[in-house]
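User: Please predict the structure of the protein below. I'd like the answer in structure-token form so I can feed it into my own downstream comparison script.

Assistant: Understood. Taking the following sequence of 281 residues as input:
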Amino acid sequence: MREINMGEITKTVEELCMEANYNLPADIKRALEAAAEREESPLGREILSDILKNAEIARRDRVPICQDTGLAVVFLELGQDVRLVGGDLSEAVNEGVKKGYANGYLRKSSVDDPFMVRKNTGDNTPAVIHTTIVPGDRLRITVVPKGGGSENMSALAMLKPSDGVEGVKRFVVDTVERAGSNPCPPVIVGVGIGGTIEMTALIAKKALLRNVGEHNPNPVVAKLERELLEEINGLGIGPQGFGGSTTALAVNIETFPAHIASMPVAVNMQCHAARHSEAFV
């Protein structure tokens, strides 16, 4: 059985917090470049060009892509043949977030309670941690700094099974249309269908981690992804909400078996930065 010390985890999380905020993922960069070439609106093309210039400055100077450096969401895929030593896993992750946000000069955006005093915790903790046990002897860590502008435009609906595919499409498109410019388009639209109320929201967020251009392996779901992307880009919201043919770069759908009486659907919106970074320990 392989041992992993908590110090390694803390150091890795620290580095990933900075990397995710400084470096635009390669697939997002390619998608933005392609969108800039085909965008019908001159202003839209200019905005997409500015987004790419901003990302290059962030990479070169190691400064945040956006001033909202996000609430730290951390996905852990822990191999079942790993033995963790040297402390508590959650504490190790949160210590990494503290160090990453301090040493990376990243804005702290976490408040200690959601509806009363709302005092800033001062170190961007606690992180939102999702842990899954998987085969193997490694730990995969994915840090997803989630900004408030896009997260606030996300939505959940408990649809009836009789609503069918058309009900899903209406809900997703309406959610994006209501969001307008708020999530800083062009967006990535993560969609979860099925499971329970918490599972559908979780798989919608996980859908955001799939590379742009990679479709769900189920051909029926992949077809729905393409149809939704076409409808959403037909809304005319455009880059940063100034109009155009590029409202979304991708629609990524994940599904999960559901109760016979239920069809929950979640939409998790992501801004054009789509920040995330991962590493194996």
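That's the full token string. Residues 42-61 form the longest helix (20 residues).
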